[in-house]
Amino acid sequence: MKFKLLLIAAALLAACSTSKQLPDDELLDIVEKATIGYFTDFADPSTGMARERSNNDNPIVTTGGTGFGIMAIIAGAERGYYSREEGVARIEKIVSSLERLERFHGAWAHWYNAETGEPFHFSEFDDGGDLVETAFLVQGLLAARAWLEEDNFPLAERCHELWLGVEWNWYTQGQPDALYWHWSKNYGFKMNHRITGYDETLITYILAASSPSFPISPELYEASYKNSSYYYNGKEYYGITLPLGMELGGPLFFCHYSYLGLDPRGLKDAKTNYFERNKAHTLIHRAYAIDNPKGHKGYGEDFWGFTSSDDPYVGYCSHHPGTPDENGTVSPTAAISSIVYTPEESMKVIRHLYYDIPESFGPYGFYDAINLEAEPSVVEHYLAIDQGPEAVMIENYRSGLLWKLFMQAPEIQEGLEKLGFSYE
Known about the structure:
Helix content is 42%, strand content 8%. By secondary structure, it is mainly alpha-helical.
């Protein structure tokens, strides 16, 4: 009942606001504050962790989404949406839960049942450690460590201890040329899923190389992550060169998840500048929408952005250009979370959604997906892994806060150098 009332109130607010267009910073403040609410007002009450999604009654919390949520909580406190003390208390509740939950050679499971504390199967054989989701979580913990150290909170040391406990090198299976995504007490390495790129998993290698306790070698990074049919690219799409990644770039979350804390501005290696690579990926998506080769309703310079999200037809899928999954669905998180790369282009999408499709905005920001050919056209629920990047990247665009905090970690600086990264 409370959630339904929030929906009605948010719809009325959005409808009233359409009569007057706000300055961009005021509009961003509305969007950021509402989106952070997913990780505060809608957080799981027993663990403080991020609920996987808003449209079911399962008590499932998500590890990666919680990492994004930690950074969103910090942003909310710094914006004054609530007190610093409240922000610290929320992170302390999450950390206490993470300390209690079962880990698998230091890695957390993808999902947990918040009521029982047991890992919840993500798929048939995925009932144990998920190294990539753990990396997303640790990215948030390291940002929190830096934030908490500003006032010498003891909680900072607890974040540090959780980071030290991840056995990144266990997930190599003892091999010199591979890092694996999953390990289970029941199934071992049965899934046999190597982590290769270019995709959302870059942060996993950076953290694994940066670990003071269980590091991997730079040779393993070269042999595993870069040993992929979709790592190097170099082709042009719509006159835009894409140095790394699959055809047309893949889903846009590839530009977001690893870079919520890792600052892409000026980050480079021998092959690419990562900010420019991600900007190119984003602009290719925008150009694809303007071209609109399948003739979908609404696509254009103010309605674009394709990434994994729910949709009105098939549920959760990738939607990215060049695949059958591109079915007319636009996911707000795609363009909004790319605001750091394409501020003017992303703001056009935000304004269009907020003023012209007011039903797309609810109590925790923009809903998960919109397809103007469907009835209803708006998928009126939320996913943690879509809301988190929006909140964090809006803050990074406005202040660079989460980039600044994460990049303060001396281990990260050492790990980047070890893997051949530098800043120009």
